[in-house]
Amino acid sequence: GNWSRWNIEAFDEKRKVDYISRWHEHTPQLIDSDNKVNAEELVRVWDSDPTIGPLTGNPLLLSTLLMVHHLDGSLPNGRSQLYKRYVDGMLGLWDDRRKVTATIIELSSRNRRQILRSLALTMHLEDRDEFEEAYTEKVIENLLKGMSTTSSAQDVLSDLRERSGLLVGPGIYNFVHKSVAEYLVAESVMEGDQRDSDGERIDRFTLFEHRSEDRWNTIVFLWAGLSPIAEVEAFIDQCLQADNYDLAYGILFDQYEKIPKETRVRLMRELLETEGVFSRPKGRRHFYFHGCPIREDEPPLEQGRLETPIFTLRGIAQTQIKDLFMSATKYRDLIWANAPSEPSDFKNLLWMGCVINFRGFDEFEKCLMEYCPDEQFSKEWIGWLFVSTMRRF
To answer: Which member of 39, 269, 373, 375 has the lowest number of beta carbons within 10 Å of its beta carbon?
Structure first.
């Protein structure tokens, strides 16, 4: 009872703007730049991105975003590609571009990357976040045996610490941020060129074996952002066969634009057909809106209370199944003609997506004439619809 509890909150919008402004003002510029940036616009654009937005509240990861944006002029599409670009840059890409020789160690960028991937994977498999220096050197020494170099493990470790910015030491070694280590593990899984202590290959099947473990969750989604689409589709189908619907459709939502339309259509139609299996009772989410009068002679509606089903999809940042239906209707992978005949939670979500993302007023009118999620609250639903659709304009 005498303990005090303290939390470190993520940056709010004001602090993000201030941090970005100060970074550009005080960080030594690596390329010719006037040091001026519209910090408010950067925050608005980055926060609106579902994969980049969650990174902006952490000062270290915000610095990562700023470094990549400064040197490349823009951010790559997706979190995995962002980390890839950052690791590429810290391992020499940006130095090569500037024709700077930043190291005297006889080791290629590819070998440096392989060493860092192996360190990250070894830590992960041993359920460790850090290694003592002697053990770290031992791991590197074993790796150097298969590489063409005369550099010692001690020199290589020192070089990686001082020049890459990805390792923190000396004494105790860990990665500059947990997400960087998780990215390197995901890259190792994609490459499939490493094995565990039992000699088993670390690949997609390893991910599937550990799919229910929290420690592998971020790695699964970073891997999905890196891997060939055929591998990602095969993994989703494996999850569906094992009834891991939250993970399968979580990956679909996370990689929605990357996955081919025909696959998205197939998966979403299967989802509509398997509601009884997928939507096990998870509770209901209430949401509110400030209503508008339906007619001029009516008073404004009081704040409406409407319900949608709760079913959380797996992801780096958790999302609700409602978000998946919104994506499916936005890209026209589901249309109102696909709606099941009987009322259901999924039919309600499909209706919500279709009326917000409608294409043409004929379709809009058809949705309104044929269905309402709850006839007892039809006025409230029409009020929600009015407020939601007006945001499009």
So the answer is: 375
